[in-house]
Amino acid sequence: MTQRKKTELKTSKKTPGAHKEFILKLYVAGQSPRSVTAFANLEKICKTHLEGRYKIEVIDLLKNPKLALGDQILAIPTLVKKLPEPVKKIIGDLSNTERVLIGLDIQRVDADYME
Length: 115
Hints:
Blueprint: E1 4-6, E2 22-28, H1 33-49, E3 54-60, E4 78-83, E5 88-91, H2 97-103, H3 111-114
Parallel strand pairs: 2-3
Antiparallel strand pairs: 1-3, 2-4, 4-5
């Protein structure tokens, strides 16, 4: 991963405004196993659930730790959903797909899940 790797925003040819576009920032620490796993898990989730509606920016805090200040990053890897609002943060390797979907407001929280 590079210091700031960006994936292009893939636009949908369906009705404009029908889908929200997700702007995601993934803060990592170089090529650590957890960072690599988090990126792989995020790409899989986005391709499966947000096809054509997302942009991922990977920020390597080993190369530029000052970038953590803007989003108040305290642990890595951390995913920050910038858009659509509200801004949300998810810490960890993103291996629990259901929790990531709920955290990104892609999937509703079922009452059974909360018990």
